[in-house]
């Protein structure tokens, strides 16, 4: 075991003692309220039962060309036979513009690139809603922004209903019966169990969005009772929280009939790496449960998806969904997504890179603007996260290990935090009422946020320098950079690498801002800027000292991604995972965070939950668990020709807007339909085969 470096060296010790004399409260200060910023439209709050139900309808319909070209030709069974016994039915009363018509395309633009189609095996499809459109999950949470607060519970999806045992320790779920994958193969418990046993429980596999056994509670088991019934057994009573983990992206099963034959457990010739990569981007027509199937891929150009003829959702008139025949994903940049959506050559964007807000707002305010732009609440936030593992996660070398030890020191984290001028950092992205000082922890304005429980250490460069002096980090060689004490990392300059994602201007701008602001501290922060995919891999593998990143839904909703609020399991947390011995070397305050989060998961008492999150916020911010940077609102941009876009849809809350707006219900009125379909009147072909048929 290495000694913490700040415990070494006599002179350093003296200095630290004198520094510890600075009372903690001198570093804290009044947190200014975020500038007022009103969301531009409010959701209509309803019950889940107002949105959907599962039932058989007297008749079903599909686009006329599907009947004439496929069903009549005998290559596709009639629509009623393709649908489950009781399809998921969207109620007309909840459709903002009512029953839709078939046709047209939603033209997405994305900045990511597909690694392949093995989503549950850990491959990214390039984000921006591709995977959200392909994958259907046991439950669904994106649209919950419109559910009445006192009725908040995940919506049914592939799991059409569930029942708790009397003692609350078992949960029996009924799967939708008779639903089929897009190639016609039956969806059933075998798909669910393959996901659970061979992708979640098999730790050689890392599902893309980080599902691990602990995501569903330590000791939780799952079994299939029959093809359409599964049974969960939990250690705690009524952990309703896990219903959120059964939504996107941690419980969306893949097509076992296609994936299983490639999995090493069933295929002795394959390694886990081969399993993960068995479905490269060129592989077409991967069977999905989602509304659209990938049918064309041109590298650095486009992914085209066509309607899934077996999709298992309908409207109340029996029209099989989706209404939109095609989906495009232009492979470009995230900044281009904004530009194209505003200009009308793309149809959709989550405006989330604050640098472009003023220009996007100006253009969208014009009457002739092709797209609607609507701001929501401040749910986009960035933090500087320090790698807190000192027991080997990511295999640090001597220098990196010394940084890990520093990261684990509260005075060090405080010093870094108060050396950051958050006001200036936010304004460097965009001027105006958008960005707000973000001290870390839960975002201001969200349900569980409590200002009184938030400890704020304001900008104070002088005190930051004093804290580092106190840690015996002194510039011994006069080059302007502080050195490690002798005996630690060879007394070298303190150099810290900062990981950030080059796919987003905001990520690198904020990272560069941090680097510049830390210069007067005598710390050399070195940019380690990587493309999204490489960044994801390095972050997952723990190969970073520091990481500036956009945070996940747990900081907004708390109930989504809850297990990631603290290192509740060996692989659940973004910046502190298990080291080489399989354990997480929790700091004492982290143990408190873990206990608080576990207590939150174990109770459904709202008052108790609010209290626990106050504690969480206090422990988090007092200990500078991560260095909050800035928080700001996002705007949803959708081309004006689309109907059924729900009011007040946030770009991010329980999930991204691509889920929130329920795309399978979105349509384009006939008189507004464009001529964008690249493969009109075709359906997906056989798995692996090229092109639509
Ligand atoms: C990326 C984008 C987000 C959103 C998500 C969907 O992260 O930046 O705006 O589209 O993909 O997964």
Named once each, the bound ligands are:
alpha-D-galactopyranose
CATH architecture descriptor text of the largest domain: 3-Layer(aba) Sandwich
The value of Rg in angstroms is 26 Å
- Oligomerization: single chain
* Domains, number: 2
Strand order of the largest sheet: 17-21-16-20-18-19
**Unreliable segments of 5+ consecutive residues:** 1-21
Q: Can you characterise this structure?
A:
This protein has 693 residues and is α+β, with helices and mostly antiparallel strands. It is built from 21 helices and 22 strands. It folds into two domains: 48-375 and 636-672, D-Maltodextrin-Binding Protein, domain 2; 383-632, Dipeptide-binding Protein, Domain 3 (Dipeptide-binding Protein, domain 3, Roll). Strands 17-21-16-20-18-19 form a six-stranded mixed beta sheet, with helices on both faces. The protein has a four-stranded mixed beta sheet with strand order 3-13-11-10. Strands 6-7-9-8 form a four-stranded antiparallel beta sheet, covered by helices on one side. Helix 1 (10-20) packs antiparallel against helix 15 (461-470). It is globular, with a radius of gyration of 26 Å. The structure holds alpha-D-galactopyranose. Alpha-D-galactopyranose binds next to loops.
């Amino acid at each position: 075991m290495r000694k913490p470096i700040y415990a070494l060296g006599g002179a350093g010790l003296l200095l630290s003692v004198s520094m510890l004399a600075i009372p903690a409260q001198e570093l804290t200060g009044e947190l200014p309220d975020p500038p007022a910023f009103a969301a531009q439209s409010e959701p209509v709050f309803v019950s889940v039962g107002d949105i959907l139900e599962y039932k058989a309808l007297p008749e079903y319909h599909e686009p006329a060309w599907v009947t004439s070209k496929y069903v009549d030709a005998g290559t596709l069974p009639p629509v009623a036979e393709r649908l489950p016994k009781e399809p998921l039915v969207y109620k007309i009363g909840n459709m903002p513009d009512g029953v839709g018509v078939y046709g047209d395309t939603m033209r997405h633009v994305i900045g990511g690139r597909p690694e392949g189609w093995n989503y549950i095996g850990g491959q990214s499809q390039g984000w921006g809603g591709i995977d959200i459109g392909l994958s259907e999950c046991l439950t669904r949470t994106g649209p919950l922004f419109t559910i009445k607060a006192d009725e908040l519970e995940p919506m049914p999806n592939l799991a059409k209903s569930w029942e708790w045992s009397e003692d609350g320790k078992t949960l029996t779920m009924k799967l939708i019966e008779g639903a089929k994958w897009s190639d016609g193969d039956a969806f059933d418990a075998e798909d669910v169990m393959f996901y659970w046993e061979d992708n979640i429980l098999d730790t050689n596999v890392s599902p893309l969005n980080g599902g691990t056994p602990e995501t569903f509670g330590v000791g939780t088991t799952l079994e299939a009772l029959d093809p359409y019934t599964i049974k969960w057994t939990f250690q705690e009573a009524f952990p309703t929280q896990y219903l959120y983990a059964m939504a996107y992206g941690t419980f969306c099963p893949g097509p076992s009939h296609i994936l299983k034959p490639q999995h090493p457990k069933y295929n002795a010739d394959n390694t886990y790496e081969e399993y993960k990569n068995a479905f490269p981007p060129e592989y077409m027509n991967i069977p999905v449960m989602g509304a659209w199937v990938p049918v064309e891929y041109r590298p650095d150009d486009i992914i085209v998806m066509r309607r899934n003829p077996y999709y298992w959702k309908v409207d109340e008139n029996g029209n099989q969904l989706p209404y939109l025949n095609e989906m495009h994903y232009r492979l470009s940049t995230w900044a281009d997504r904004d530009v194209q959506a505003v200009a009308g050559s793309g149809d959709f964007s989550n405006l989330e890179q604050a640098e472009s807000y003023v220009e996007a707002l100006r253009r969208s305010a014009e009457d002739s603007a092709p797209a609607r732009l609507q701001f929501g609440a401040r749910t986009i936030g960035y933090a500087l996260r320090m790698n807190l593992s000192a027991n080997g996660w990511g295999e640090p070398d001597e220098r990196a290990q010394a940084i890990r030890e520093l990261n684990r020191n509260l005075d060090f984290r405080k010093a870094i935090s108060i050396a950051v001028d958050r006001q200036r950092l936010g304004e460097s992205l965009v001027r105006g009422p958008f960005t707000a000082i973000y001290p870390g922890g839960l975002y201001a304005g969200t349900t569980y946020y409590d200002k009184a429980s938030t400890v704020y250490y304001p900008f104070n460069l002088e005190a930051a320098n004093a804290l580092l002096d106190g840690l015996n980090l002194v510039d011994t060689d006069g080059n302007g950079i502080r050195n490690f004490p002798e005996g630690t990392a060879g007394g070298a300059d303190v150099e810290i690498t900062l990981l950030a994602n080059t796919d987003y201007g905001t990520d690198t701008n904020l990272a560069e801002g941090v680097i510049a602001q830390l210069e007067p501290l005598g710390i050399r922060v070195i940019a380690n800027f990587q493309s999204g995919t490489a960044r994801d891999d390095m972050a997952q593998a723990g190969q970073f000292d520091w990481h500036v990143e956009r945070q996940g839904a747990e900081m907004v909703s708390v109930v989504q991604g809850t297990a990631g609020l603290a290192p509740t399991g060996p692989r659940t947390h973004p910046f502190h995972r298990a080291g080489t011995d399989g354990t997480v070397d929790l700091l004492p305050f982290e143990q408190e965070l873990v206990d608080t989060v576990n207590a939150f998961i174990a109770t459904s008492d709202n008052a108790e939950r609010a209290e626990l999150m106050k504690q969480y916020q206090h422990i988090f911010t007092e200990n500078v668990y991560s260095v909050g940077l800035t928080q700001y609102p996002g705007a949803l941009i959708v081309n004006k020709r689309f109907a059924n876009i729900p009011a007040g849809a946030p770009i991010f809350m329980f999930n991204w807007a691509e889920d929130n707006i329920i795309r399978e219900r979105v349509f384009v009125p006939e008189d507004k339909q464009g001529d964008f379909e690249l493969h009109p009147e075709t359906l997906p072909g056989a798995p692996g085969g090229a092109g639509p048929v």
